[in-house]
Fold these 2 entries.
Entry 1:
Amino acid sequence: MESSYGRGSPRYRRCLALLVAVVTIGLIGGPARAGDVDNETCAACHEEIVAAFAKTAHGIYYQARPALRDYGCEACHGSGTRHIEEGTVESIINPANSRQFDDPILCLDCHRDAQFQDWEFSSHHTEDMNCTDCHDAHAEYGGALKQPVPDLCYSCHAEVLAATRMPSHHPIAEGKVSCNDCHNPHGAEAMLTRDIDNRELCLSCHPQYEGPFVYEHAPVNEDCMICHQPHGSVADNLLIYQEPTLCLNCHDMHFHATVVGFEGVSQDRLGRDYESEEDSWKRGMLTKCSQCHSAVHGTDNPSQATSSGGNGLTR
Amino acid sequence: MRRYVCAVVAVGLLLGITASTGQAEPLFNQWTLSAGGHYTGLNDYTRKVGEYNLGLEEGMGEFGLAYLLATDRGLLVDIDGNFYDRRNILGHAKYRRGTTMAIDVDFRSMTFREGQDLLTNIEAREEINGNPGGKMMGHEVLDPGADYNTHRREVLTRIKHAITRSGDIRFLAQHRSLWREGTTQMTSTSHCITCHVESETCTRDEQSHQIEGGFEADVSEMMTVGAEVGYRRYESKSNAINREYDIAGFPPAANPGRDVEFPSRLLFSDTVLPVFVLPETEKLSGKVNVRGRFSQATSLSASLGYNTTENINQDLTASSWFGHANLATRLSRKTRLIARFTGRRVENDDPFIDIRTFREGRPGPQPSFDFTRYSTLDRRDGRGEVEVIHRLSREATIDVTGGVRVLDWSSFPDTLEGGTATTVFGEGKLRYRPSRRFTGSIRYRAAATDEPFTTSRGILEPRLKETLVRNFEDGETVHRFLYYYEREQFRTVGATTEPTLAQEVELSASIRPSPRLNLTLSLLAEFDVNNDIDTFDVERTSLRPHLNVNFLPTERVAFSGGWTLNQMTSQGPIAVALFDG
């Protein structure tokens, strides 16, 4: 039910697809390879495709440009003269067959927006993927992606699909966050949307952790991924392991955990009761470090212990 | 109120655009209204499962509205919105006017719920010879049964406008606002008399506003340059909790008569202080970039940027320069080369921290803990890699990558071992694609790091026995009482569980017997080793097989199934203490 209104919904994908198609084609003045064979000639054999083309993202844009409206097929498929003569599949350009060793990708001739210009350096491209692996240029407006995101992404990245079903996860399955919020599938800068590294990207939505703080936690400055698994995790708060295992990867065990506990109930100076068992110290010190070190992302407030210089990240 | 403003703006945009269509012939002009409902029951309810829902036992109607208008003169209006419940609302509006104007407005509202930690594990007292000892820890939950949740809203507006008729120069603008309101659990710890953890409800009221502006210009048929500047302000109006810290004193049973010493071991006692104070920050950023081609065979993408972030409350600033350059070229008809370089330099203010004298007025050592807080943000980080892809045949390619990353913390004086981590990495991949129905690949990657990431102070202690027989100042063998700070100084700087050698092997296959059926299989194995220090050998092994099936019997129906197993084994001294307990 949630995904019916999510950013991963078909409607949202339609918007994205047309953004890609209309804006970028228009900005650079449109393709200029038309002119040998008009669309009516193509329709003689490919009637359904030509008839449906007007309502594709490309078709909507072409309507405003007479040359493209009449000769739009050749904008992507090149001159149709030889194809008419020979009638073979090999005699016409098929953008779906354009791969990384071919001449510059056909679609990029028109789609020259900044978001596409790193395509040739991207992991998707070096994996020999093609625009048509994800896009269908002949689909009606809104359907230029072969599947809605995130399903399209999951068709290759199944491990991410599994992660988003973990108990703690970014609300991708709920339709409130999309793959494209963090990733640029056409990009090269670590495949992220716009930021130079993971930390900058995370802070764009979680600015409260940016600081700079007087008292820092080093991995927060380093890379959020040291502690967090952004797609999903068994542990709370997208942590890669539950506490205290995660903390013990870098820190040694709190030495109070070795204290032997008193069996029974006793009072402190203020008359407060303390119910204790032999293993109570282990239980208290080896369950969840952030119960006491609650300002784990950094703080300006010193903690109480003098000997640690106020560095305890407890307030 | 803001949501109504957004709705009014969206409707106004829609009406204005509709009126401006003039005599254009619509290709699409359609409304879609959807309605439904849901009911949430709380049987077997755990808040964690419902962390993105209201968590209320209630029925609620759902509504959706979509409008699409496209004309033969290049006008496009696409609006859709969905109401799930009063906190889960999404909306998107898109406007295009030919090639000259593009506007996108997104609205996103969601809720996030937290469970309550009852802190029941924090209650213990030390035993000394069968009697209650001095060390105690306890907890107090001041708001039992509290229901914590935050409401997050976001408005994002992006505008692109072609300044010139040809569209060669485009103006870009973006605005983004985030609001987060609600309540959360906040714990604070007092070390006075006992170690005492208190939990209270803290209200959240945070805002972040960001604006960006810039331009893109096609300087030639093959080259585009651009620049952008941005400003972001974050502020928290959350109510700080005022925590009362007891009078500092030794627990009576353990140290009778020594109350006078204990206060100097703590920075504050018998006072009320705020906790959970988030600083107000401002961020300025700027970036220039160039993208394009030198020739049909060679592409370039490069950027250079600067940003500075200020903690206004503390007058602290962190600044960074960063840049990247990518170059792709075809060496031959069968060989491509891609070179990627990134670099970054971060500098942070270093405040002086004035700490009270330890054991002030007492005989024996009275060390000063004053220090300058150097930041682990300070660094120079450079990375370069070269990837060569060669087509062995029409079906097979081989991909070889080699590179180096140098991470230098030399401006961070607390790092005692030079502060430079150098990682050399290499990767080889063979991919086979005999037809569109099958793709297979095998990949191997290795990365060796000579000084993995570590914090400044050192984090792992040598064995306590070794600690006790050394004098940390002059190397003499002594046996005496150790203060906490002495334990810290004994810690081994440079020890970390980050791998010195990380290796990956991946096998992958994708089978598509028909256009409507796709099967993906893969196996990823990771082997991490850190043998930097003999006593801290760490090994991690991870095995991740996965299987995914997609079946599309018709264009409107899709079935997807996936299975992934992540098996991880860690071997290191740290886990022993945990599980032995």
Entry 2:
Amino acid sequence: MMNKCVASLPAAVSGIRDGAVILIGGFGNAGIPVELIDALIDQGAKDLTAVTNNAGSGRTDIAKLLATGRVRKIVCSYPRSAGSVVFEELYGAGKIELELVPQGTLSERMRAAGAGIGGFFTPTAAGTKLAEGKEVRRINGRDYVLEAPLKGDVALIKAETADRWGNLTFRLAARNFAPTMAMAASLTVVQARKIVDLGAIAPEHVVTPGVFVDRIVEVSNPAPAGRA
Amino acid sequence: MAAKPLSRDAIARRVALDVPDGAYVNLGIGLPTQVANYVPADREVVYHSENGILGMGPAPAAGKEDPDLINAGKQPVTLLTGASIFHHTDAFAMIRGGHIDLALLGAMQVGANGDLANWATGDEKFPPAVGGAMDLAAGAAGVWVLMEHNAKDGTPKILERCTYPLTAEGVVDRIYTNLAVIDVTNDGLLVREMVTGLEFEELQGKTGARLRLANDWRPIPA
């Protein structure tokens, strides 16, 4: 029998190693897996690389993880948001490395990792500072930049509903990076607001098929992200 | 008669007149967001948000905000009837794949060659942030810039070549400022419209690149 549901948040994040690359879903405060991040903080893994669109705001969730000093490097498109005080302090003090990646390239690099693609040429960033040191190829009269896949050891994402096979749906625009991150990590951990019976999600309404999911934990009343 | 520069609202209102019926449009953060308020009611325009929304509607009434429904600037929005939700990789496939007809973007500088600088000043004190700016600039089928003609200290923002780090090379099609509407052409910058009362020489004096005045130029409609 296949059952990807686990009983607790500690069980959901168990085994995450020091040095791991952690993909964290969310855009702004929508779709941030707050409880999984808290569980990761409690679990204690360090020397992490966090891949996430924003660098957290306020003092909770991503900002709280950064404040532990256990994130060595962040891969991010827009770290400087209203309230991204923790990141700015760490960055200003030289205590965190930043790899800045255009948002679409960030997402496509993870898709490539999940889809078994060895890299891709994109017009994004051609002729800019963010293409420095990268191979540029002229294709049909236009410059394209070679970008590498970005694979996670772990993905932490938030879903609306999940079944025990790992089929997922998401709520509104909280979906954002989650389906791509689910594909791109060796271990995909999901916090779902509700775990439903197998078959309760109509097959054609499944957004992320269970093959991309490894562990599910129910968090029925998730806290909002980005609190002070 | 002294020339009166357009207010920011008036720039947005002017741009809205040119957004075609049936267009898929991405609105950048800030001034471009206001364009949606002025698109004529007889046009059906579908707004795209990089975080996975097509058919984005206006801001919700107070108390009706949903934290899972935000735009690229992280402000609460609504969905129109017929809207769709998708994941980030698809949102950017729409952008990069040329499926979005128009990106309306703010800018720090625009070059006479269509180069766009809108993500960094090169000041190393601040951590850099780029978001979707480079993807939109490189990928949207059309790129229109909305901005003040000059920086707060009067420095021209339209230059022969940008001095700030580029967002993308040669992508800007049209510039709407508080003084003029300017097309970026293969022969350089062509002034289509100026605010009433502004002399071409005065506009040229406020611009860091050579301008030409279109034969059929007209005052910006009030």
